[in-house]
Task: structure prediction
Amino acid sequence: MVKITFPDGSVREYEQGVTGFQIAESISPALARDVVSCGVNGETTELNRPINEDASIALYKFDDEEGKHTFWHTSAHLLAEALQELYPGIQFGFGPAVENGFFYDVMPAEGQTISENDFPKIEEKMRELAKKNEQVLRRDISKADAVKEFTADGQEYKVEHIVEDLEDGTISTYSQGNFTDLCRGPHLVSTGAIKAIKITSVAGAFWRGDAKREQMTRIYGITFPKKKMLDEYLVMLEEAKKRDHRKIGKEMELFMFSDRVGKGLPIWLPKGTQLRLRLQDLLRRLLRPYNYQEVITPGIGGKNLYVTSGHYAHYGKDAFQPIHTPEEDEEYMLKPMNCPHHCEIYAHKPRSYKDLPLRIAEFGTVFRYEKSGELHGLTRVRTFTQDDAHIFVRPEQVKAEFENNIDIILKVFKTFGFDNYEAQISLRDPEDKEKYIGSDDVWEESETAIKEACAEKGLQARVELGEAAFYGPKLDFMVKDAIGRRWQLGTIQVDYNLPNRFKLEYTAEDNSKKTPVMVHRAPFGSLERFTAVLIEHTAGHFPLWLTPDQIAILPISEKYNDYAHKVKAYFDAHDVRSIMDDRNEKIGRKIRDNELKRVPYMVIVGEKEAAEGLVSMRQQGGGEQATMTMEAFAERINNEVADQLKELD
Result:
């Protein structure tokens, strides 16, 4: 018998060799119908894999993240199986599950192409194969046999992957029907659970992400166990298109891109700059009780700064290449991180234990070399501004500082209506310590501090191994927006390593020299990404205190432009942000155009308003309408803004 421990701590005994599916059946037939994979001792695996020793188990349905990953992983293989039948001679690269579905990189045979026109026949073939309910069979295989089999199949990319990346004794394949793929798993037991299928897009992708290698065809798709779920997802996609921050940003004139300036380099237009500055002002307001000192550091730094910090060795390929000056051996880098500069600020004069915590904050612009195919609006760019801070503390202050920053991040989320969020503790991969710097003792101490801080704040956080930064563990916050999409925003990181590398120290109470601990934190993450998520979450309908234009003044005809200018001058003098639409257009057209710009209020002025010194107010979206004096309306706007800002304190 083996003892199986469930997530609630309960324990049951089963015969040795029991499978996850049999365990689910023993609990209830309904659970057995819904479960798609299981976690055994923290590792996601197939439901038909025998369990031969005492273990902890979690049973995953499609609704669970692990369940979705398993479902979509098998769906990627189903896509490849369909492509193999439809396109003889096609070659396969990699086909993983991703956050929303899956993709497969393929190289069609000479003379073959795959476009959107082919999506219906690919979907139909996938449905046909899924209905066969083919068993998905795992097989461990030697490296020599794997090379032999995939060479015989003409799969050159698979062979290259086996020869260059895989070690003998670690290789497995999964087969369904006539298709076999090189894969570690996990997978569904069979394909019959895949009921609803949609191929979503096709794009180009370089083999192994190397721009010097051949370009493959990347086919994206998504699947569900029920058609209703796919229908709901497609509705969400349509809503996402309407909320696309690139589209809304253009309509509201917030930001732009220019090919002449360069890919992935956003330009903030006047209205977007106003919005960005108000976001910065909000954070400054939230930080007042915590005694932060704001600094400004250069956008470049000497290469040796990043060699010292470890960023050059661990992060160099993601940074822009070093800049060489006329001076021999003098090299600079565009700043990829703010933290090395802040370490130098700490080190520029002696520090005492009385000086700590020392909180250094900066809206620091950094530069990362994102591949052109991965750039996307404001969410993936090559330069962005972090709402960054580095707090230098004594070891006994780490937990309290961590808790303070949890409070700040949750306050930001509450302010913008991000009520649906989850926290993730990202730890070092204990099986691959070469990726990280620092001793085991330092990592254990910092990881324990994060776990204890979350527990004391009552913050439920899931743990992910291998997701830590190279210098320390972190706590990341993922928010779900108004239509259920997941975004990574705020982050807090504990770092015992950079202070050591920079030889930072403070004088302790006993006059000994000690090394401070460094806490990194960014509540927004970056102003660019946060703005993009906020646009899509609100569909561009920002709170009145934040929106660039609070009022649009619309004269009914050119005869009333002079009065409209008088109204605007009054609003300007009373801190109400207004724009005037004095185009020679019909009032209906002006209303429609300003609705598109998401201006919260419109003020319409005509003969009556001009004669009596009034304004006719109309809320965005055809809401409340009323006529009042411009004085009364300005007071209303200012009171509404004051009430909103009061809630932030």
